[in-house]
TrEMBL record:
Protein name: YtxH domain-containing protein
Composition skew (Basic and acidic residues), residue ranges: 68-84, 94-103
Species the sequence originates in: Streptosporangium jomthongense
Start and end residues of each stretch annotated as Disordered: 68-103
Lineage start: Bacteria, Bacillati, Actinomycetota, Actinomycetes, Streptosporangiales
Length: 103
């Protein structure tokens, strides 16, 4: 209960201080954020980070695909055919083959 009370007090103090700062301070912060985001150095850094994230996701996707292919038997080709040829049922699972019993 003590933590809830402290949280409530903190919330109330933050609300009061925020409302006193008012719209003017909000607009000032917004202008500053826009100025920073329009800076060419920040845009270049964001582009570099985006490229690194894209490269990392490609590597991760390849690794996950390789591990899945190794661990999931229905992705393994049994007779030299690729996994896309096993997906005749539309479920992603290979079609079960009927057992042939000799008469």
């Amino acid at each position: 209960m003590r933590y809830r009370l402290m949280f409530g007090v903190g919330l109330a103090v933050g609300y009061i201080l925020g409302s006193r700062a008012g719209r003017e301070r909000y607009e000032q912060l917004k202008r500053m954020a826009r100025r920073v985001s329009d800076n060419p150095a920040v845009q270049e850094a964001a582009g570099l980070v985006g490229a690194q994230v894209s490269r990392a996701t490609d590597v991760a996707r390849t690794k996950v695909s390789d591990v899945a292919r190794d661990k999931l038997p229905f992705l393994q080709p049994r007779d030299g055919r690729g996994p896309e040829e096993h997906d005749e049922t539309g479920t992603g699972w290979p079609r079960e083959e009927k057992a042939v019993t000799p008469h």
